[in-house]
Write a structure and sequence with these properties.
Elements (H helix, E strand, L loop, with lengths): L1 H27 L6 E4 L2 H27 L6 H4 L2 H24 L8 E3 L16 H16 L8 H23 L1 H9 L7
Antiparallel strand pairs: 1-2
Helix pairs in contact: 1-2, 1-4, 2-6, 4-5, 5-6, 6-7
């Protein structure tokens, strides 16, 4: 059916767009000065590698699905699940990109604080404490649901790993910004409270 091909094409094109847009932003914005304080390299290596591993499995699975579909039973896939998946995919991509652009020069590809680092509370960070992590969790979940694949279950470890990474990042920010971060934490949830 044409709509299944269009769905697969939309998800594949969306993933490529997100990847290249992310790459473009990282090349355009120069980060702040070198790191002063960062999380334990052992923690980052462990969680970073596990997250990358799970994400890679899901991306290969999406590519594999385009070539050889493995679907949920059709009674579960009709309409609502696929539409919810597409909305989740699109929202996740938009939230991640919004979070990335909201950070501006404060963004880096690792977790650490720089001397000139300031607490970002505007843009996406006005509504989410970790919009990039939320978006990165929603994109593969939405893609898998839209494709009606059982592999949506693989997104659970990604979300759990990103949750642990967020907790470690918050501890680092509390240590640096103290009461300012605690006030921010009271006002803004990891997901919107209002």
């Amino acid at each position: 059916m044409f709509w299944k091909f269009a769905l697969r094409f939309f998800i594949g094109a969306g993933l490529l767009f997100l990847y290249f847009f992310w790459w473009y932003l990282s090349r355009q914005q120069k980060p702040l000065a070198p790191k002063r304080q960062q999380l334990s390299p052992l923690f980052l290596n462990l969680w970073g590698r596990l997250t990358l591993f799970c994400t890679t499995i899901i991306l290969f699975q999406i590519l594999g699905y385009v070539l050889w579909p493995i679907s949920l039973p059709s009674s579960l896939t009709e309409g609502v699940v696929r539409i919810a998946g597409l909305l989740c995919f699109a929202a996740g991509g938009a939230i991640a990109v919004w979070g990335r652009t909201s950070l501006g020069r404060s963004w880096a590809d690792d977790i650490g604080l720089r001397k000139e680092h300031h607490l970002v509370t505007s843009g996406a960070y006005r509504y989410f404490r970790h919009p990039i992590y939320l978006g990165v969790s929603l994109v593969p979940l939405g893609a898998e649901l839209a494709l009606a694949s059982w592999f949506f279950l693989l997104t659970i470890p990604i979300a759990l790993m990103l949750h642990q990474l967020a907790k470690k990042e918050e501890a680092l920010l509390k240590g640096r910004f103290g009461a300012e971060y605690l006030d921010y934490e009271k006002q803004v949830g990891r997901i919107p409270r209002k």
